[in-house]
Automatic annotation (TrEMBL):
Gene3D superfamilies: Cupredoxins - blue copper proteins. Residues 121-141 have a biased composition (Low complexity). One of its GO terms (molecular function) is metal ion binding. It comes from Eucalyptus grandis. Residues 24-122 form the Phytocyanin domain. InterPro entries: Cupredoxin, Phytocyanin-like, Phytocyanin_dom. This is Phytocyanin domain-containing protein. Keywords: Copper, Glycoprotein, Metal-binding, Signal.
Length: 176
């Protein structure tokens, strides 16, 4: 019965390993967070961004996060954000490969360097060319109930018993 108890554990391990490989969480600016005085070009150059990862912006009420076009990034144009975030802790899933641009829309902050440009690459660990991670990042996949494996194992044991009894029957028939 050790196989029956090991099977669910092995299954959970197999499911958990690829989930860990994908979905790195990258805190913008590391311990500095999203603030003034941090060089985000240097930070971005030290990171690898892949589809399935998440960006986390942590900031005070002095700041916010605008996702913008390259042109608005270059010119620090704050009036045309693709998306705006103000919660103080913003997680942005990197769902598509390509460049992404973020600025702080507080007056003067972008022009003083509070801007981030990244290039998201396709995850090299995924054999498919179009990975599509879910948009929600907080959910964790729960392992499947072990009932199915248990039933399969019991069925297997039943087959073994049937095989044994037929062998015994054959031996008895040969002897008699
Ligand atoms: Cu700011």
């Amino acid at each position: 019965m050790t196989m029956a108890s090991l099977a669910p554990v092995l299954l959970v391990l197999l499911l958990a390993i690829p989930a860990k490989v994908h979905g790195a969480t990258l805190t913008v600016g590391d311990s500095s967070g999203w603030t003034q005085g941090t060089n985000y070009a240097t930070w971005a150059a030290s990171q690898t961004f892949n589809v399935g990862d998440s960006l986390v912006f942590t900031y005070t009420t002095l700041h916010s996060v605008d996702q913008v076009s390259k042109d608005d990034y270059d010119n620090c144009n704050t009036g045309n954000a693709i998306k705006s975030y103000t919660s103080g802790s913003t997680t942005i899933p990197l769902s598509t490969a390509g460049p992404m641009y973020f600025i702080c829309p507080t007056s003067g902050h972008c022009s003083s360097g509070m801007k981030l440009a990244i290039t998201v690459g396709s995850s090299s660990t995924s054999p498919g060319s179009s990975p599509s991670p879910p948009s929600t990042t907080t959910g964790t996949t729960s392992p499947p109930p072990p009932n199915g494996n248990g039933a399969t194992s019991v069925f297997g044991v039943g087959n073994v018993m049937l095989g044994l009894s037929s062998v015994v029957a054959t031996v008895i028939a040969l002897v008699c």
